[in-house]
Amino acid sequence: MPKSIISIQHLSKSFGSFQAVKDVSFQVFQGDVFGFLGPNGAGKSTSMRCMLSLIKADAGEIRLFDLPIQKHREDILRRTGSIIEKPDFYKYLSAYRNLDIFARISGTYSSKKEIYAMLDFVGLNGREHDKVGSFSHGMKQRLGIAQTLLHNPDLIVLDEPTTGLDPQGIIDIRNLILRLKEEHQKTIILSSHDLSEIEMIANRMVIINQGKSIVEGSVKDLMSSENLFIRLEAEPVEKAVEILKNAFPDINIQLNAENLLEFHLRRNLVPSISQLLISHEVAIYSLESKRSLEDYFIKIVQQDAI
Amino acid sequence: MLFKSVYNEFIKIAAKPRSYLGIGAITLLVGVILFALKSDGLSILSFVTSSFEQTLSFEGNLLNGNLIAFIILQMLLVQIPLLVALVTGDLISGEFAMGTIRMVMTKPISRTTLLLSKFIAGAVYTACIILWLGIMALVFGQLFFGTGDLIVLNTDGLVILQEQDVLWRYLSGFAVAFLALLTVASLSICLSCFSENSIGPIVATMSIIILFTIIGTLEVSVFDSIRPYLFTTHMASWRNFFEVPLPQTEIVKSVIILIAHILIFLGISIYTFNKKDISA
Fold first, then answer.
1. A191, A297, B44, B148: which one has the fewest Cβ atoms less than 10 Å from its Cβ?
2. Residues 6+ apart with CB under 8 A from B91
3. Residue B58: predicted pLDDT
4. Higher pLDDT pick, A257 / B119
5. Count of CB atoms situated within 10 Å of the CB of A87
């Protein structure tokens, strides 16, 4: 059983009469890249802020590294790096000076050399002494990652790290997260609106809606029971339909205007389609499976709303 | 951690352009006053001394650096609180306005330590302002106008202080003026804990000072019981050091009341900041 790094149980938080978080529970294990999903206003940021003691929870238990945050805030934060909402820096200071300031209160000593190396790691070499006020959002995001990593934390908390980034910026951040996971074995929790992003990066996830956690588990397991939307170009079409209907009697196959077959199929059965058709001498010109976490997410959220 | 955080606060204050507004404003204002007194100071002085000339005869350099410094302090110590509040009122609320408070508070530093470090940095900034005012008024005053005995016109009449008896009075006066300005700094830091924008605490600090000053000067009996305890009543107590004999009880009372205000404002700040949700 892997070690639990974050354990949140029945978290709730209200702001006046508005209950932002009603009942959120989840667990993050060592080495996880954990996706924290939910629509706008679901309570993701509030939960993350409670987790890092930025705001005080009304009820529930928050334990990080098996320690309660209320009593061991400083010990926990010494081992944690985070970006909440967006990375805001002192605009009138340089990138180097900003990192220097945050390093000084991070609980571990970071030398000049280490700060420069970190700026290089996030691709900000050459801009070390430029004022942050002149930085693009993407550059600030990289600098945010740098301040997150500088004190070599065990846990990294990223609240919507790709928001507002251009496509290249999103790819860069994604690659950076993957490097952290693979090369540095960090435990990462990230929330994002880009759900396909989570699908590509995370191994476990929780979905929250209206302040409540709805589903939690491994991304692979949660997705394997999901239907995928398949679009298939095969020849001869009629033979392909017949074979597929015999093999999967429950599916509803449609022929679209472009003479492509469209149907939904369980994810774990998709690999057998090509095998089956080829063995019956049906030529496959294209097979597109459009299944995304978005579909799953929307379905789950809708079910919860009902 | 406190030392490291104080160092961080020094870096932030030193890098902010608004921090130099106070130094610049003092330089400009004192420069203008020095120029004006150099040009027309003697006629102003003779206007003041004329009423005493029937009973007293004045000899030597009356318009000297010591008198100039006194005039400057009397003129400027009313405006200096604004210059202090401009920086200290932004210390907490500025972090909220910029959003940097999220980043700072996810580091292993306690809220009390952060607040104390801001208070210490604010106190050092206040001391720098007072020090610069002292240098400008006393050093430049003596440089341009020479030195001599100090004539001070108090409510009880004319007080003449020997040249060698002046410096310690100035140093003590500056120390009490520092306490008065530190009270303003503590008030603005305290108000800064309630706000998430930079302007609010600065305006609120000045509004409170104006309100308390009006209450302090209004000769209305309803305020008689609170007037002695308002910090604004004791902001000009540096002048007590230029009285003969020295009103020691008044000075001690002023110092106690100013320190009590500083501690109360600091206590409220620590309590509020520790309770505050960082949702900015």
1. B44
2. B9, B118, B121, B122, B189, B192
3. 61
4. B119
5. 28
